[in-house]
Amino acid sequence: xxxxxxxxxxxxxxxxxxxxxxxxxxxxxxxxxxxxxxxxxxxxxxxxxxxxxxxxxxxxxxxxxxxxxxxxxxxxxxxxxxxxxxxxxxxxxxxxxxxxxxxxxxxxxxxxxxxxxxxxxxxxxxxxxxxxxxxxxxxxxxxxxxxxxxxxxxxxxxxxxxxxxxxxxxxxxxxxxxxxxxxxxxxxxxxxxxxxxxxxxxxxxxxxxxxxxxxxxxxxxxxx
Length: 224
Prior knowledge:
Elements: H1 3-21, H2 25-29, H3 36-41, E1 50-54, H4 60-68, E2 73-78, H5 81-93, E3 100-104, H6 112-116, E4 121-127, H7 136-145, E5 147-158, H8 166-177, H9 187-198, E6 201-207, E7 212-218
Parallel strand pairs: 1-2, 1-4, 2-3, 4-5
Antiparallel strand pairs: 5-7, 6-7
């Protein structure tokens, strides 16, 4: 199966999953998508900066980030047309459409210039999306390639629940599987490896006894 066919299949799957869920997504996910607000508060977007969210979903994170950083411009990418419809409505309702541009695309292989007319971003963040994306490692590489000099990539996602009881981990994994979600055991390793490859800095935190992992990869300032 070709890459294009895989992308089309994943897009169809996500549209099917979220065709109805999108209407209650934010109400239900706030109870177990932990660490998102810590990630947003740590973006530290420069004045007039550009911010891209990969897997923007309902637009919840972009809206909160846009409120916190009123001088920045925001861009959202998602493979699900259903989610983008919900995000566009929410963003318009919040009165920030002039500062937010959404596009449909695959986070593992996207052309920012063609989609947004901008090649590099000061901040890129991925919130609980890598655990849903086939070939998620390519998303990390693509995000780092789209960072401006001195920019940073921020990731929050499910950890391995290493400090929590085994029964909790078993129940959580079973529940997440119903939504095609799989916590990435090698997430830290991949982010660290990509940081070394690109000469970037790397910071990593475990949250809530390993329930969630929060990481920041900082691209160095380019040298002449």
